[in-house]
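Sequence only, no structure available. Ideas?
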Amino acid sequence: MADDYYSLLGLTRNATAAEIKAAYRKLAMKHHPDRNPGNKDAEEKFRKINSAYEALSDDKKRKLYDQYGEAGVNAGAAGGPGGAGFEGFGQGVDVNEVFGDLFENFFGGRGGGGRHRAAQGSDLKYEAEVTLEDAFRGTQLPLNFSRAEACGTCRGTGAKPGTGAKRCQQCRGQGRVQFSQGFFSMSQTCQSCAGEGQVIENPCKDCRGQGRIRRDAEIKVKIPPGIYDGATLRISGEGEASPHGGQSGDLYVHVKVKPDPRFERHEDDLSLTAGVDVATAALGGTADVPTLEGEPVKVKIPAGVQGGATFRVREKGMPKLHGRGRGDLLVHIRVDVPRELNARQRELFEDLRKAFEAARAAPGDPGVFGRLFGKD
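Reply:
I predicted one. Tokens follow.
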């Protein structure tokens, strides 16, 4: 009695294509003859799961199998039985489709090979510091760093002027060579051209065939208004040049915003502490508060304000990096008690204290607790 294809793969009959593929790959790796040399049971198991996968991974064959079983698959296949079998592995089953990601990890590319693409240049990272005022207004920041740039003599080809690169005879310009391992046909980077697909017989004397020379670079980077501390800007194409004419890498600028002695930042809001004298705290008035625009704003202080009170000034914070408008300015009040008094100030405070004492001792005055808890 023929084995049930679904049971061979450990699946139910309503299994999805992804589940069929995953189950097959797991079992194929387990029972592959290269992993079980001389094990006839593993070889036979491998034959069966290979036939099962070939039938179930094809929509037409799967329908025939679901209706008529293995006989329906064999009858529907041109030229004989539809199972790929041990000898036919790689013909009925697309090896790259099933194991492509494994080939990518182990061999640096997919089993099917393909024409070589010039390698992209390396990305670079740069750390830059700006002041809070620069972050508020935005600025053009000059950056100086070292990077590999295209050789001016050979224009990045790596070949001596007047000559050029030739196609690699080993890989025929593909950058990869095919080879067989057991029952698999795979590809790997060509050792003769290091994957370039071409060789340079007469290298440029200035870059020694590399197509690149290290130089000091200076560019200006635009810091947008409202930039956050820790933000990273990507400058496309300003990284290192690619060997032999590929695309240049990118430059990543990590921005650090320096602390400001006056302001603290909370996302798009700014906060600061403003001191007011005891007279203003008691009587009310205004306080001049600095802003990053340069012009102070007047904040109204109500009579009897207490230390720690906070007032919000709308639209006086940081510009919003990813939107319109600005954050707010939060003003925390600090009541400044004078540490030293001149003669006139001392006299006035003495008079004020006497007035407070007289008010507390006035006839009929129930005092603080009497006012709070006394009966009408």
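Confidence is low (pLDDT under 50) at residues 78-91, 103-116.
Hope that gets you unstuck.
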